[in-house]
Amino acid sequence: MPLTIDPMKKSDLPEIMKIERESFLSPWTVGMFKREISSDHSHCLCARIHSDGKEIVAGYIVFWLIIDEAHLHSLAVKKEFRGKGIAFRLMQSMKTIAGKNDVLFQTLEVRASNVEAIKLYRKCGFVVKGVRPLYYSDTHEDALIMWADINPVSE
User: Fold this and answer.
1) pLDDT per residue over 94-110, tens digit each?
2) Catalytic residue among 15, 55, 109, 135
3) Which of 15, 36, 50, 77 is the most exposed place for a label (fewest CB within 10 A)?
4) Domain map (residue ranges) of the chain
5) For the whole model, what pTM was predicted?
């Protein structure tokens, strides 16, 4: 299954919104994605599957680069393509872009109950460094704060 990762375009938003609605209890709006696409510090990428002459948006990632930190804001993969390494590839793209911009750390918040996402983030080198109590306004669930080094120092 040929996969490419490249910048998100406004024309991707109808497919992005389908993924967003099937993935999140409180999905982002089209306006939120448009603001991210046009923001200087935001990076919005799409994973595209190429099959039978068609291109399908299979997932996306939105992250910010601020000073020495990459902050993941949103990551989702279309249900039918989950478990195929697409989210991992998107996370690796974030790390690569961050590294090329002299960023040292990556961070994110994740629902404490989101076991699959936590497993992915651990696979990408993230560790839990804190908790934001009642972070999610829709469910009052805690968020785990996870961090990872871009270029870990060997001891």
Assistant:
1) 999 999 999 999 999 99
2) 109
3) 50
4) 3-149
5) 0.92
Per-residue pLDDT, 155: 44
Which residues are within 8 A (CB) of 150 and not within 5 positions of it... i.e. 6 or more apart? 70, 95, 98, 99, 103, 104, 105, 106
Q: Does residue 90 surpass a pLDDT of 90?
A: yes
Instruction: Tally Cβ neighbours within 10 Å of residue 48.
Output: 19
Contacts of 79 (CB under 8 A, 6+ apart): 22, 23
Residue 139 is encoded by which pair of tokens?
């469910």
* DSSP of 93-117: HHHHHHHHTT--EEEEEEETT-HHH
Q: Indicate which residue of 121, 135, 136, 141 is catalytic.
A: 121
Task: Report the run of H or E that residue 47 belongs to, with start and end.
Answer: strand 42-51
pLDDT tens-digit series, residues 109-133: 999 999 999 999 999 999 999 999 8
Mean pLDDT of all residues in the chain? 93
**Backbone phi, psi, residue 5, to 5°:** -125, 120
CATH superfamily ID and name for 3-149? Gcn5-related N-acetyltransferase (GNAT) (3.40.630.30)
